[in-house]
Write a structure and sequence with these properties.
alpha/beta; Rossmann fold; 7 strands; about 15% strand; deacetylase activity
């Protein structure tokens, strides 16, 4: 039987999850939580890098964050649309790892694949718990406790933030693992990612942190309320 995960984060491409919530992942793995990442595509249409190189970079990034498992569903880059196949692939992964929490990109983003990834994950999140829904992978029905949304390219008002002040360096280390995406080379194609992108990500997390009185924070959005058992008085745990 596969080991249950505490958190399973989905992204359209390798580096999406790290951009949005790499610090949060590092924070949770540092205290023993089991985290997994699933990239829906191999980013085969990316302007820079190769499929093989991107897979190796994703492996290095996951290791730096302490991620337990990283999977790739090998769906078509720029072909992430709601289909029975795409939904069932994500359903199978949710049932396989039985995470308590599922994370996916916030749908308002300049890249259509990010929003399309989330449509698939939302459908699968619900369908994974349907007993009569069968997939090619015969895992037992299971529905996680909660679905939350992280930001990739956007800067939106978060419903809650997580203090990553002690883990910002690890977040940036996971992103610099993607040399093909964020560093210039002799054959680099001009994209937003090679034009001070990491600096803008750091600035965003600094601004979110300033809102709550810490150095860095990552922002998240949720469609359902967050239950607080502690910290109602603004005291940091």
């Amino acid at each position: 039987m596969n080991e249950q995960l505490d958190i399973l984060a989905f992204g359209a491409h390798a580096d999406d999850v790290e951009i949005g919530m790499g610090g949060t992942i590092a924070k949770y793995t540092s205290c023993g939580k089991k985290v997994g990442i699933c990239d829906l595509t191999r980013a085969e249409l990316s302007s820079n890098g190769t499929v093989e190189g991107r897979l190796a970079e994703a492996k290095r990034a996951a290791e730096r964050l302490g991620v337990k498992v990283r999977e790739n569903l090998n769906l078509s880059d720029r072909g992430l649309f709601l289909s029975e196949q795409s939904i069932q692939e994500v359903v199978a992964l949710i049932r396989k790892y039985r995470p308590k929490l599922v994370c996916t990109p916030y749908h308002l983003d300049r890249h259509p694949d990010h929003g399309n990834c989330t449509k698939i994950v939302e459908e699968a999140f619900f369908s994974a718990g349907i007993r009569k829904l069968k997939t090619a992978h015969q895992y037992a029905p299971y529905r996680p406790n909660k679905l939350i949304y992280y930001m990739i390219n956007g800067f939106h008002k978060p419903d809650f933030v997580i203090d990553i002040s002690d883990f910002m360096e690890l977040k940036l280390a996971s992103l610099t693992a993607y040399e093909s995406q964020f560093q210039r080379g002799p054959e680099t194609v001009e994209t937003p990612l090679v034009n001070d992108y990491l600096e803008s990500v750091e600035a965003r997390e600094r601004l979110f942190g300033k809102e709550v009185g810490v150095k860095y924070a990552e922002g998240f959005i949720t469609k359902t309320p967050i239950l607080l058992n502690r910290d109602l008085l603004g005291e940091h745990e």
